[in-house]
Structure formats: C-alpha cells, structure tokens
Design brief:
The chain is an all-alpha fold.
Length: 745
C-alpha cells in the first residue's frame, strides 16, 4: 500500500520541464535578513550564512538585488574567511549576468577561424559548440533587462564611492590580511567579470590605484616587501582581468583600456627587481591562456618589442632587468606553444648575443628561454616533394620515422607566416644557434690550449691578461651551453621524445670537454648535464651513428677527465638503444671500451671496467668468452722487478707491463661483475686466475680484493648452492690464496 500510494502521489507531480522553484528567492532574502547590520552576529555564523547562500545560487533563479549589496559589503569584511566565501559567491553572480557570450569559434568566412585551444579545431570544423546553449537560454529567461540594468547601476554606484574603493584595495592588497604573495586567479576572474559587466567605470575607479603603483618606479626600495608585493599582486590581477574583460567592449573603450595596459606594462618591464616578476608572469599567462595569438596580437607585439632591446642599448646591460623581462615572457611562450613560430624565430635571433654575457644570471635566463622554445616548438617529420611522392606510392604517405628528428627535413610553410619568403623553422634556427656556440667553444678551447702550451714552453710566469680573458670567455660559453642543454633535456615522467636529439652529436664534444674547465662549478655542472643528455630517449637511426662518431672523437681526448666522463655516457646510450645499434657500431663500441682498459690513468681504466661489464651483460656469454682469452693474455704478461726498472729512469718498461697486467685483471673483473647473482661455467676458472694476482703490485692488488669482496657480497645468500659449481681444487685455491678457511667453505 505504501508503494502504491507513493506511485499515485508521484503520478500527480508536474513534468520536469514545468518545474518552477517558487520561494527560492524568498529563502535567499530570508538568509540575507539574518546578516542585517543592526544585529550583532558572530563572524562564524555570518560565515555559515554566506557559505549557504553561495551554495544555493542557481542559474534558473535570479539572485535578489539585496543579496548583491550584502555580498559587496562582506567582500570588504575584516574576516578573511568571510571574504573568501563572498568572492566565490560574487564570481558566480557575475557569471549569471553574462547572458550573451561570444563563441570561441567565429565563422566570418571559410578560413576566418581563430580557435583558441592549442590542439583542437585546427584541422576542420568543430564537432559541437563549446558554449552550453541550454544554460544561456535559462539565464536569458530569469535575468531580465530591467534586473540587469538595476544591478549594473548598483555596481557603478559602489565603485564611485571612494570609501568602498579604498576598502576593497586594502582588503585585496594587504599581505597581512591573509592574501597570498602571488597572483590569485580567482581575484583576476572577479575583475574580469566586473570589467565585462560594468565597463569603463570600474577602470576609472581603480585608475588612481594603478597610477600610484606605476607612479614611483623606486617604490620597491621605500616600501616593505609585504606592502610592495601586495600592491603589485592586486595591480597584476586588475590588469589580467582588464585584458580578458575588455574584449567585450566597444572599439573606443578597447583603445582606452589597451593604452592603459601598455603604460602599466611598460613600467613593469623596466622595474629592476625580481620579487614581483613571477606575479606579472602569472598575470600574462592568465591573459593569453587558451586564446588565439591574433586575439591578443596587440599585447604580444608590445611585449616582445619592448622586452629585448638591442645589445647596444644602455638598459640592456642591466642583468636584473634582462632576467626580469625574460621571466615575464616565458609563460607567454609556453602558452603560445607551436602557434608562436614567428616570435620564436625572432627571439632566438635576439637572444644569441646574450649567451656570451659576462653575467651568469643573464646567460642562465637566455639559455633557459631558448630551451623552452626548443621544447614548445613542434617540428613535424616532412620530406622533400619527390621523396614524399615516392613514399606515398609505397603506402606510407611520405613519412619516414628515421628522419623524424632531422633538423633539415623539408617541411610546409610555418603557421602564422606573414612574409612571402619561406622562413626557417624554429628548430632549424636553434640547430644553427647551437652549432655556432659549439664552434666558438671549440675554437676558443683550442686557442687556450695552444697559448697554455706556448707559455709552458717559454716558462712565462707573468700574468697574461689576454689569456685570462680567453679563459673567461670560454667559461661563459660553456656555462651557456650547459644551461641550454639542461633546459632541453627530457622530463622522464612525461616526454617520450626529446628535442635535444638532433643537436646531441654537435653538443656532446664541447659538453664533455667542459669537464676540464678550471672552474669546479662548471666541471660539476657539465658532468651532471652529460648524465641527463645520455638518457635522451628514442634516438633515430640517422642520429645514432653521428652521436657514436662524436663519442669516438671524444675518446681520443688528451684530458683523462673527458675520457672518463665519456664512458658512462656511452654506457647509458648503448643500454638504452641496444636494439637500434648496428652490429658494426657495437663492435666499435666494444673496441673503444677495451682500448681504454689500457689507458694511462687508473680512473679511466676502472670506468672502462664498469662499462665492459654492462656491455657483456647486454651481449651475453658469447662476448664474455670472446674477451676472456684476450684478458688472460694481458693478465699473464710478465712484470720486471721494480729494482731493475728504476736503474734506468728513461725506461718505462715496468709501468707499461704493470698497466697491461692491470688491464687484463680489470677485464676479468668486468666479466665477473657482469653476473652478480649467477656463476656461469667459465667463471670459476676466471676467479682462480684473479686469485693468483692477489699479491701483485698496486693497483692490481686493490682491484683483486675489491672484486672478490663484491663477489662475496652478491653471492653469499646463494653460496651453498653456487658452491657446487666449483671443484675441490678451485675451492682450495681460493681458500688458500684469499681468505680464512670459513670464507668459501
């Protein structure tokens, strides 16, 4: 019976389309009445009431006019929690007034389309409209023209009141009033709604504050940090809201707003401090987010024309000013992404002189900016017309995966191309820039080495200013290259392809040669950067041979630091691309590693031992068996007694023989280290051979003890099982020569 009664009662309900929420407005008015200023209500209860009101706001019910007054009053409340909730309610109410909204896609002619998204609607008509038409129709029914005019007039009157403007500036710009020391997007969204709904009156009301912010360029030296940053944050939020809100104004009003914005940004770009740079960069990112470049072309043109003056300009010599300008522009480059190709080309050309700046922060800013352009620029894999036709006939539409990273691949005209001649693609500009920087480093490095050798041969101990200047210029270029490569190196969490790949063969030699720089910081950064570059994923088959050729040239360097750093790089690259390396290249890699086992520096020999161990682990036991015989011959080479060798100081027989035997011992140690948790059939014999060298001169003795200590550490858990692979004589030999009887028993 209860179910039947429920069904009968439900059948009498009106259809959903005819529902009308009567009394919703009266309920909101009743809640507003509780906030009457005549009654003293605790701020916690006021917070609960305001939060309830903000939750109950609906698009199909117009907020009562009295609610607007209460929200505006509480927006300047002394309690930060109440202001935060009122801000959310105020933004919702401003959105309800927007009954007419421009579409994200305008269709004036067939090709007159400016999609705002980076990666949608660029290849054809949009599948559906982005604006919710039903929501717009609902708002148009409840938000009448009379209601809208009444609310707009009330907002105008509020912002014409100087006391209210002072209060809202105080609440939104004071750090101690619980506002963040950064750009707040919800505040900027509020100003956008106000500018869109009310218009120029809000700008006229806030103009004295904006003029005061830009009126004193030295305010950062006079005000406390909190006061100064609070003013800058509020000004940035107003400007960001103005840029996005003035697009709905008339042409005359737009010109007034744009003129004011340009005056503000001109002062902002010339402030010689970095505290507020992140605030204004967030403001500009908010302004251009998901907007077609031509919609904000006036802003982008102004910023890029004012940001990078010529190097002869006196203001450009200020390192802080230059870094501030680039920090402000970086978010715009990131937001424009591949759509800002002409700007990328011009910026690459303008930034090149700053890579040789004597100021470290200037070089870092310029290099990181070029790295950002490299990452956001998309270079599709295109081939020449004839090759494309042949490939299309073959069925792959002219796409060659091996050439997908080639910097000189033929491609279609760039998007946003405003010139009649075909411009260079940004990746080609970057490739030329990196090639020029690497060439300068090589030339200056060669000149520095020749001058150093000349000074040694002439025994010149006097200070040579030209030589010191040459070393300083070389250090600056190396620092710029390191910062550039670090900015372009892959993010392992999200990138499956790296824009550094086409430039890696040219970058590798000067990058590794930076390890011999006398500046310890440059050497340390170069080593870390080489490790990052070695992990570059998915190198194409036409890039890999070039990279290996660069590695071979570096392996012949006269500096043992460079040779030692090359081996870990080669080890990582070989491991990551073991299925792409040809058999011929694999033989060359093995030959280089074996050759460096006989290097004159012990650090290089030990690094080569580790690299060979990884190579054997990848290649299998066939490689181990092939190398074992050569290592046996080297390890069995005789060493003359040290007393006889020292009779003739010019003879290097003893050191050469010791080096050759040490190379053989290191090779055998590499074979043992390739199997840390297993004992192949040939390993007991190798271990016995190694045990016979436990009394050899240093550093052979140390190597033998180290490899047996590592062997026992990795095999001790399973030694009762692995011991069966040794015969009694081998176990006896190991026991007698190395350790106590209980070690291998």
């Amino acid at each position: 019976p209860a179910a039947a009664a429920a069904h009968e009662s439900s059948s009498t309900l009106p259809p959903c389309e005819g529902w009308k929420f009567e009394g919703h407005g009266e309920m909101l008015e009743a809640l507003v009445a509780l906030l009457d200023g005549k009654t003293k209500t605790h701020w916690r209860y006021r917070l609960m009431i305001v939060h309830t009101i903000s939750t109950l706001l609906r698009d199909d019910v117009a907020p009562p006019v009295i609610l607007w007054n209460v929200v505006l009053d509480e927006l300047v409340s002394d309690v930060s929690h109440v202001r935060k909730v009122c801000l959310r309610a105020f933004n919702t109410m401003l959105q309800q007034l927007q009954t007419e909204q421009q579409s994200k896609v305008e269709f004036v002619e067939e090709h007159d389309r400016f999609p705002d998204k980076n990666f949608s609607n660029w290849n054809g008509m949009p599948s559906r409209k982005r604006i919710n038409e039903h929501l717009t129709q609902v708002r148009q029914k409840v938000i009448t023209e009379h209601y809208k005019l009444e609310v707009v007039e009330m907002l105008r009157n509020r912002f014409k009141t100087s006391l209210y403007v002072e209060n809202i500036i105080k609440c939104l710009s004071v750090i101690q009033a619980a506002r963040a020391k950064s750009f707040v997007g919800s505040f900027a969204q509020m100003w956008k709604g106000l500018f869109k709904v009310v218009g120029l009156d809000v700008l006229h009301a806030m103009e004295p504050f904006l003029d005061g912010v830009i009126g004193d360029p030295q305010a950062y030296t006079k005000l406390s940090t909190d006061v100064y940053l609070g003013q800058q944050c509020l000004a940035a939020e107003i400007v960001g809201g103005l840029i996005r809100g003035c697009k709905y104004w008339s042409a005359t009003a737009k010109e007034i707003a744009q003129d004011k914005i340009c005056k503000m940004l001109e002062v902002v770009l010339n402030l010689p401090e970095m505290e507020s740079a992140s605030t204004w960069s967030s403001c500009l990112r908010f302004s251009v987010f998901d907007r077609h470049p031509r919609r904000v072309g006036w802003l982008i043109s102004f910023l890029f024309d004012s940001a990078l003056p010529s190097c002869s300009n006196e203001s450009s010599r200020n390192s802080v000013l230059f870094c501030r300008r680039l920090a402000i522009l970086r978010p715009i480059l990131n937001e424009l992404s591949w759509r800002g190709v002409p700007l990328h080309r011009q910026l690459i050309h303008d930034l090149e002189p700053y890579l040789e700046s004597p100021y470290s922060q200037t070089r870092e800013a310029a290099s990181s900016c070029v790295g950002l352009i490299t990452r956001v620029t998309w270079n599709p894999p295109w081939r020449s017309a004839s090759a494309g036709g042949d490939q299309e006939a073959a069925g792959n539409n002219g796409h060659d995966p091996d050439n997908s990273c080639h910097p000189t691949a033929t491609r279609p005209p760039c998007p946003m191309q405003f010139t009649t001649s075909e411009p260079l693609w940004p990746s080609e500009c970057i490739h030329g820039l990196i090639a020029r920087v690497c060439s300068k480093i090589c030339r200056k490095g060669m000149a520095a080495r020749l001058q150093q050798l000349r000074r040694k041969s002439l025994d010149e101990n006097k200070v040579d200013q030209n030589f010191d200047d040459l070393l300083t210029e070389l250090k600056n270029l190396r620092h710029a290259l390191i910062r550039l490569v670090s900015a372009v190196c892959p993010h392992f969490e999200g990138m499956y392809s790296c824009p550094l790949a086409p430039h890696l063969p040219a970058v590798l030699p000067p990058l590794l040669q930076a390890l011999e720089d006398r500046d310890k910081d440059i050497s340390r950064q170069a080593k870390h950067c080489a490790e990052l570059a070695a992990n570059t994923p998915m190198l194409c088959r036409n890039i890999l041979p070039q990279l290996l050729s660069s590695v071979y040239s570096v392996g012949k360097s006269t500096s043992w630091h460079v040779r030692a750093a090359m081996l870990p790089f080669l080890q990582i690259v070989t491991f990551r691309h073991q299925f792409l390396i040809s058999e011929e290249d694999l033989w060359s890699i093995r030959g280089l590693m074996v050759f460096l086992l006989q290097d004159s520096q012990v650090e290089v020999r030990e690094t080569a031992c580790t690299a060979i161990s990884v190579l054997v682990r990848m290649s299998g036991e066939e490689t181990a068996l092939e190398l074992k015989q050569s290592f046996y011959l080297w390890a069995d080479s005789s060493i003359p007694s040290a007393s006889k060798a020292t009779k003739s100081e010019s003879s290097s027989t003893f050191s050469d023989a010791l080096l050759k035997r040490h190379a053989g011992v290191l090779g055998l140690a590499a074979l043992v280290g390739a199997y840390p948790y297993d004992v192949p059939e040939w390993m007991p014999e190798v271990l016995v051979r190694l045990a016979t060298h436990v009394l050899d001169p240093m550093p052979i003795r140390q190597t033998v003890r180290k490899i047996f200590g590592e062997f026992w550490r990795t095999h001790q858990d399973s030694w009762p099982v692995l011991k069966s692979k040794f015969d009694e004589q081998q176990l006896s030999t190991l026991t007698n020569l190395l350790v106590a009887p209980t070690y291998f028993s």
